[in-house]
Design a protein that fits this description.
This protein is an alpha/beta fold. The protein contains twelve helices and eleven strands. Strands 8-7-6-9-10-11 form a six-stranded parallel beta sheet, with helices on both faces. A five-stranded parallel beta sheet has the order 3-2-1-4-5, sandwiched between helices. The model has no long low-confidence stretch (mean pLDDT 97).
Length: 317
């Protein structure tokens, strides 16, 4: 069969689909696997050996869908299941298996704090979409393929260090600067700071106020960030895409949770043989306002931001 997999965003969500690609291609090598995503996420998948062809969305969805229709797919695996992917399916008119997004269950938890979530990891829900094809989870976790050409020697990093991936798309998913400073100063370890251009100022502030920090915010591409995490002792990250890339690299992770909760099924996902005994989940429990969103906000809706301000950093060395 010729199979089209749909997942248009974002970094973490795309990395979390990689077991589907690997299991499909290794268990049914006769199938031709195509993947459609946004052009800006090309680098996450361009080195993946389990994809036969990438289709990159840039500009008009109409033109993009027309190009997909010419491929004459036999099946769509919809791992996004939103209005765009439903529209693509309606035009391609082929059989479609889709992810159960648990929208109703998440709505009840966010709005009414009624927990009927099955606590099924999203990777396992992704895998359910291909179970009809006789595909089973091989237990090998996530994939992230770092190109051999990736170079980080110019940064002169120490032999032993932690990585702190300090960014997040939504403010309520990351520690405020004062808590980031507290976190870094609590660690008796070299700390490499990674983040995007939007994190440059925070990186400068941390490097000025915290001991043993090396600020690389805004200086790395995503593959360089991945390689620096791969060579680290541990990774500290918020509930973000970098956390999932670290899990794909089988790194010990200290994950920090603010307005979102692990019960949504987006925790670090490891291979079955990975020892996660030193991994830690940092969250403030028993807050009546948490979770306030399944994604995040630009500021705390209540104004107090207790889910992050009340975080403590003991026992994370």
């Amino acid at each position: 069969m010729k199979i089209l997999i749909l997942r248009f965003s974002s970094i973490g969500d795309i990395v979390l689909t990689t077991p589907v690609l690997r299991c499909l291609k290794t268990q049914k090598p006769e199938h031709e696997i195509h993947y459609a995503t946004k052009k800006q996420y090309h680098g996450l998948l361009s080195n993946n050996p389990y994809i036969d062809k990438l289709h990159l969305l840039e500009g008009s969805t109409t033109n993009f869908t027309s190009s997909l229709k010419k491929e004459n797919f036999d099946l769509i695996i919809d791992l996004h299941n939103n209005l765009r992917t439903v529209n693509i399916w309606s035009i391609l008119r082929v059989k479609r298996y889709k992810i159960d997004k648990l929208n109703w269950e998440k709505w009840l938890m966010v709005r009414l704090k009624v927990n009927v979530l099955p606590y099924i990891h999203i990777v396992d829900r992704y895998m359910d979409t291909i179970s009809h094809l006789g595909i089973i989870n091989d237990g090998k976790g996530l994939d992230y393929f770092i190109p051999n050409s990736t170079e980080i020697s110019q940064f002169n990093l120490p032999d032993n260090y932690f990585v702190y991936a300090l960014g997040a798309q939504h403010t309520t998913k990351k520690l405020p600067l004062s808590k980031q400073i507290e976190l870094c100063n609590s660690l008796n370890q070299n700390i490499v700071l990674i983040g995007g251009k939007e994190d440059i100022q925070a990186g400068i502030s941390l490097s000025e106020q915290c001991k043993n920090t090396i600020n690389l915010c805004g200086k790395l591409n995503i593959d360089q960030s991945a390689l620096i995490m791969k060579n680290s002792l541990k990774v500290i990250a918020h509930d973000t895409g970098m956390m999932h890339i670290a899990a794909a690299l089988n790194k010990t992770i200290i994950s920090i949770w603010g307005n979102t909760i692990p019960e949504f099924g987006m925790t670090p996902y490891y291979s079955n043989d990975f020892d996660d005994s030193e991994c830690r989940t940092l969250e403030v429990n028993d807050l009546s306002c948490r979770p306030c969103s399944k994604i995040g906000f630009s500021s705390c809706p209540k104004g107090h931001f207790k889910c992050m301000m009340n975080q403590t950093f003991k026992h994370i060395q």
